[in-house]
Amino acid sequence: MLCSARRTAALLLAPALLLTACGGSGHDGADATQPAGAGYPRTIDNCGHKVTVKSAPKRALSLNQGTTEILLSLGLADRMVGTATWTDPVMKGLEKANATVPRLADNAPSFEKALDIEPDFVTASFVSTLGKGGVATRDQFEKLGVPTYVSPSDCSAGRDPDSGGDGSRSTPLTLDTVYAEIRDLAHAFGVDERGEKLIARLKQRVRTATEGLDAPGVSLMYWFANSQSPYLGGCCGAPGAITRAVGAKNAFSDTHDEWPQINWETVADRDPDVIVLGDLTRKQQTAETARAKMRFLETNAATRNLTAVKKKRYVLLSGQAMNPSIRTVEGVEQVAAGLRHFGLAK
Questions:
Q1: Are residues 151 and 175 in the same domain?
Q2: Are residues 218 and 199 both part of a single domain?
Q3: Which of 46, 183, 192, 284 has the most CB atoms in a 10 Å sphere around its CB?
Q4: 3-state secondary structure of 150
């Protein structure tokens, strides 16, 4: 537990530079068949950090919706003391468990507020959340004896978070990185078997959604947010993983930025067959909801004559499905279903 003196000291620490050189996701090889509570301490290789957990966490804080939904899916609500930074309603099936976990903030909480709940383990989906300018750096938490974990999808090999937009990837993201995160967190909490069962269910969902699906030549455009200078899905993030899974092509596969901002005239030139719309509940950018996006597309001079707009070929996804997360599998399912509904898949 953190005492008030340590909490005050933490707030006076100068932010440490976040280590961004990232290695592969892995763990120390403790026997996955051991009961929770056995085999500690456990060490996980995570984004250039050695994360050592002395015992199974009992007071976990998740600072992003993506990591929150993994912990809830692993049945760990009773070991969570807070969540933060939400873009969407919680994933279906997790509503009851989520209701038992306090929400510190819809967006990022202050470092002081995070410490007030005395976490013994902190997770985040993004390097920026546990970095300079975020809630706090990993070093600030770890100097207080609180281990931290960042989703490997945000620091995997080939990702450059400082390249513009939301960063770029020289290597395409795969769902294996999401599965590795589940495996790491399950290991940290001593529920390895639950992790493997969850991964198996997710893999089966992908197989079921894409079985017999073939959509060669069908172009998809992914619009996350912002109508003035839209954030569109590049080649190698979650939209790329979804597109490859359904056998289609990304209209902006020639850019390695995660979410490049591209003008509408360029979109008109590409004229995608299907537009995948982020249906967000947050209120940070223009055109957050799918309804607002459709209204814009159907009235803007540069977009109203797009093939997808005239034929109303829209697929609606949660923001979480459009970022690397457990819900990217949900994205595969919904895009696959959309392609079949529009008669574009063989």
A1: yes
A2: no
A3: 46
A4: strand
CA 55-60-64 angle, 5° bins:
140
Q: DSSP strand E in the chain: where?
A: 26-27, 42-46, 49-53, 60-62, 80-84, 103-105, 121-124, 148-150, 159-160, 168-169, 219-225, 231-232, 249-250, 274-278, 314-317
* 227, HSE (Cβ side, Cα atoms, 13 Å): 18
Between the alpha carbon of residue 173 and those of residues 154, 191, 242, 254, 326, the distances in Å are 10, 26, 10, 15, 13
Residue 28 falls inside a structural domain: no
DSSP state of 276: E
Which residues 6+ apart lie within 8 Å of 239 measured at CB?
220, 222, 233, 250, 276, 322
How many domains, in total, are found in the chain? 2
283 CB-near residues (< 8 Å, 6+ apart): none
Domain final position from 152, 168, 203? 203
CATH number of the structural domain spanning residue 226: 3.40.50.1980
Residues 145 and 64 in one domain: yes
pLDDT tens sequence across 9-66? 333 333 332 222 333 344 444 444 445 456 899 999 999 899 999 999 999 999 999 9
Domain region containing 82: 33-203
Are residues 151 and 231 located together in one domain of the fold?
no
Answer for the pair 213, 336: CB distance below 8 angstroms, yes or no.
yes
CA distance 342 to 273: 10
Characterise 39 by phi-psi region: left (phi > 0), alpha (psi -120 to 50), beta (else): left
Record the pTM: 0.86
d(CA 18, CA 16): 6
